[in-house]
Amino acid sequence: MNFTDIQQLLGNEAESLLGFNSPKVSKDLLHFPSPTFVDDIFGQSNRNPQVLKSLASLYNHGRLGGTGYLSILPVDQDIEHTAGSSFAPNPLYFDPENIIKLAIEGGCNGVASSFGNLAIMSRKYAHKIPFIVKINHNELLTYPTKYDQIMFGSVDDAWNLGATAVGATIYFGSENSDRQIIEVSKAFERAHQLGMACILWCYTRNNDFTKDGVNYEVAADITGQANRLGVTIQADIIKQKLPQNNGGFNTIKFSKTDPKVYSELSSDHPIDLTRYQLLNCYAGRAGLINSGGESKGASDVAESIKTAVINKRAGGTGLIMGRKAFQRPFDEGAQLIRDVQDVYLSKDVTIA
């Protein structure tokens, strides 16, 4: 995937995304991915040497190793969305070994999955690619459907199976968010004690965040504050959905904000919206990785490249992409992962 390929895939959005060079927040105020990111940022923090070693293991693995960028394969949708809905398009992935093989073939920095998926293959692969154990999940077997994140195992168990990092989700804004914040903050404290890195899925979830048909769960101001809460509980890396709009606080009429958030710190440009998310990650001291989203078939490659360009040009750390890769034939999925990585390897796609 060269720069011309990237331009062609972006189509009529190429000029707007690749030529954007007037961000509201100057890059001079931010910290960006670099080959020395772990030393420069976490070397000044309270993270102990074992955590630094784990972070370095993630940042130095795979095709993006040594660049400061991350490419992670996440496969926990068999719990979150049911295995049938996730793997029916490609039954190969009912077998957890193929999940890990895809991450290796795709040149990922790490593979994120459930306790069971990683534990069953631990002795064969934990030393070959960094494991990120997702310690909590929503599950859709309860009826009527509820939305909550509950713990599926212990941090010590993740360490015992050879994990380099743990991952967790908090549904900020939900009725259960207080409990989730307490549970995950304690889990992250224990993970850091044991020397593992911590990645937080910083999602917002509340039916009342939708108004007049617009879903503000993906608003830059609301997700930005979710990121701020995530780094407060010492997440080393923040996973967030790409922002789709802004002004959630004003529209829903809750919490507090400031007019300058919308006039001086962001605009309606997707790179500006994503940069505001990054600004809330301690100005980039915690890396921002955006999610790849659901698979839509033929448009997946173009959509993934677009997301990667927005994330990189905003100053983000990479992409965490699952369904777009594993819901297609193995070789195609691995190639899609590598295509996205090529955006981060391209010297022509610069930080705005």
TrEMBL record:
Enzyme Commission code(s) on record: 4.1.2.13
**Which InterPro entries has this protein been placed in?**
Aldolase_TIM, DeoC/FbaB/LacD_aldolase, DeoC/FbaB_aldolase, FbaB-like
Q: Which UniProt keywords apply?
A: Lyase, Schiff base
Q: Which Pfam families match?
A: DeoC
Superkingdom of this protein's organism: Bacteria
Entry's Gene Ontology BP terms: glycolytic process
One GO molecular-function annotation for this sequence? fructose-bisphosphate aldolase activity
What protein family is recorded? Belongs to the DeoC/FbaB aldolase family. FbaB subfamily.
Listed name of the protein: fructose-bisphosphate aldolase
Q: Which organism is it from?
A: Flavobacterium rivuli WB 3.3-2 = DSM 21788
